Known about the structure:
By secondary structure, the protein is an alpha/beta fold. About 3% of the residues have low confidence. α1 packs antiparallel against α2, α1 packs parallel to α3 and α11 runs parallel beside α12. The protein starts with 9 loop residues before the first helix and ends with a helix. Helix content is 38%, strand content 21%. It is globular and about 85 Å long.
Amino acid sequence: MNSENLYFQKEISWLAFNERVLQEAADPSNPLIERVRFLGIYSNNLDEFYKVQFANLKRYVLIEQEKGNASNAKNTLKLVHQKVIQAELKFETLYNELLLEMARNQIFLINERQLTSNQEEWIKKFYKQNLRQYINPILLDSHTELIQFLKDDHSYLGVEIINNNEIKYALLELPTDKISRFVLLPSDSASKNKSIIFLDNILRYCLPDIFKIFFDATEFNAYSIKINRDAEYELSSEMDSLLELMSQGLKQRVTAQPVRFIYQKDMPKALMELLLTKLKLTENDAMQGGRYPNLKDLMSFPYIGRTNLLNKVLPNLTYKRFKQFRNTFDTIRDRDILLYYPYYSFGHVLEIMRQASFDPNVTHIRINIYRVAKDSRFVQAAINAANNGKKVTVVVELQARFDEETNIHWAKTLMSSGVKVIYSQPRLKIHAKLFLIERKENERITRYAHIGSGNFNEKTAKVYTDFSLLTADPMITEEVKKVFNFIENPFKPVTFHYLLVSPQNTRMRFMELVQREIDNAKSGKPSGIYLKLNAITDKEMINKLYEASTAGVKIRLIIRGMCILKPQIPNLSENIFVTSIVDRFLEHARVYIFENNGLKDTYISSADWMPRNIDNRVEVGVKILDTGIKKIIRDIFTIQSNDNVKARIIDQDLKNNYVQRGNKKKIRSQIAIYDYLNRLENDK
């Protein structure tokens, strides 16, 4: 078989994942406002795809053209374009269907031509009191360097200012970072109808108020545009510090070449050509859109109306064992703890850090930061610990894509508070989710460690599913300390037995673990591989799974996003079955389970099976030693494997067909897991 037929193109696989998000918007069993928000998630995902995946693909095509090579990447580029257009048509149809459904629920999304006289007066006041201060028109003339300041991801209105036969042009930026994109309009007191207007349409209505103070005009017209810029940047090794490197890199991103330009499809040709010229793009780089080409804001569409328009709230579970001990350290020392967000409250981890910050016995706290909340209580606890005279070391990953500015801010704040701040090496991101607390107990140091799959982020912990292992097991905590030492001294030799640490031993250990299953299958012993990942794109590991499948090893994969492995190929991957779960929570946990002749070795990790996670990042996975926790993780994986409501089959055609339930009991894994964990807590 041709090697190209062994794998999906990763960009096409990614687009198939985003189609699954679109399926959630189309699913009538989801509450109405949740469906609208899924449209926003789809739109936001697509923006990120263009800034990263598409930009990389386009860059690769240009490199191959320079070399004079014929490349499949160019064909992939065309296929991506076709797939996006097809998906965007589905999006537009869905958007219009949901507008009608909202109207049936007395929620009306209206434009500037549908206002009542009272609403017109209200909007004029709203503009003057709340909006005008943020409106700074950009006049488009021969001197305008548009590519230098047009912001990535922001919405703009391209404006025609017409005075008889003379036409001038301007741009208006929508200040959605200052004012909500959705404005609730006053309605008749006797009416139960709710009217919402886009901020775009308020500006459209107020164009005369904006421009007539300087321009004589007989007509104003406005058309939406947006751009996505290449998110990559070059880091020069000549600069003094990584902080300076990252600051310079962010400046490059701001002025990076646009990779996508979307314009309202009825925009006059003269205005479109002017914008393309100033952005140094061609018509091939442009994509037609509707009146609102930037709809990622639908993610935060306001709740208006009845409670049945939103998902039923699942209250955070409380880990009851914390109440049985004097403090959190006594709880962890008694027995390892597994938390699974968002089912359990992230507040448990925040409380551990809060207690550590003023516990007289705590001497040293080490933390990895990748993405944290804007007003992070986690970071504030680290600062408080330093204020209390404790030694605090924080590894800040400045290269966390799209969070670089936030992390630069935190790095400076931490340093000014007396915290020792460490950065990763350029191009070697630290993606591990670790903290290590050293505590003096009975004249000896006891260590408490956190190893997880998710960030220390209060916001994402409400919607991302992630595991946290909390342990005082000296075999594990000693190795966590070695990870922090490795980060500070990456060229010093180090070995690990209980941890999978990229780029040190992860690939080698994966190969050994899969090979053991192959050997067991050939020997007639129980074998099997069960993986839950966000993505699997590493061809070397995929080939090893193909080898295992050929040897008779049953392989069960649950992959949320990109999966370039092709399952169910006769004589190659017929023993590999893959599903993807997309539901109200974003599946983010990584789990590896290897049958090992019935011992069922179980790991949780921060690493997907991608080259970057295995070879080019610091990632940490841990072997679960506690038998009770092993069972919980396996039970959760079994529930997810049996999902027949929100699971889609990844087949050779990437059709995203739902798993068929037949006569089986309905299992929606995210709800079933909540019920399972709730029963565990009630049984304690």
